[in-house]
Amino acid sequence: MNQYETNAKWLENLVKDFIETSPENTLKNQNNDRAFEMPLVGFSRGDDPLYEAYKDHVGPFYLTPWEIFTVSFRDFHIKPEELTIISWILPHNHNTKVDNRKEVFYPAERWARGRIFGEQTNEILRKHMVASLKSEGYRTVAPALTPQFSKRISPKYGYASTWSERHAAYAAGLGTFGLCDGLITSVGKAMRTGSIVAQISVPPTPRPYTDHHEYCLFFTKGVCGKCILRCPVGAITQSGKNKEICAKHLIPTSKDYVTANYSFDGYGCGLCQTNVPCESKIPQEQDVH
Questions:
Q1: Which structural domain range is residue 278 located in?
Q2: Are strands 151-154 and 183-185 parallel, antiparallel or unpaired?
Q3: How many structural domains is the chain composed of?
């Protein structure tokens, strides 16, 4: 195993060991259940043309890995090819998905906890990865935790941000997009995702797809559309997702419900991610009933 492969295995183990052993991986419920099951990890290069394509499509405010890294370290001599983006997929706990399958309008308590406390786990994982690489002499930044990360409005796509964890995961060969905009991975789309950018040499993960909708049966086979039926407010149609309608259901509607019924300040939905063929795997035509 050469150094590049050794680096990749080390990074993969850092993510997996954290999720498997850290007490921070918790829903913070009475049983202190784990928020996430075993993660997926993938890598992409800082000079991958996809990142410039994202900027072209989303808007000039979208930051490439090189831009985030150079601004963070004030080092404009670094070359994009010297950077690696480490991405991970954190699949929701099985019982969380089971509970949310039963819901038709509001999120199950476990799902809302996965959205709020699960993302706290994800944030701690980002910090853990940055610190672990720094301790070994590698400069690293978590884009979602930088001052440069912010929500924006894309002329073409509406609600957007200066960095997308899902698009980084797509570049790292971890999944493709579905009709509801969720990322369908080999462990499904009921998950959360994160990433860091590091000055380290790691082989990029091959992308086993050529189209950004390749795992979605609606786009590839003209079947399914189960997420349309699952959306409680009609935000998903055959034309895609209306982000504004979705956002209003999350806040204030679901937020008010979660706060009143689950006794913590949170929100969530996830109905389009559960009780659908792509919930926990890459779906096949026979999965559509």
A1: 3-287
A2: unpaired
A3: 1
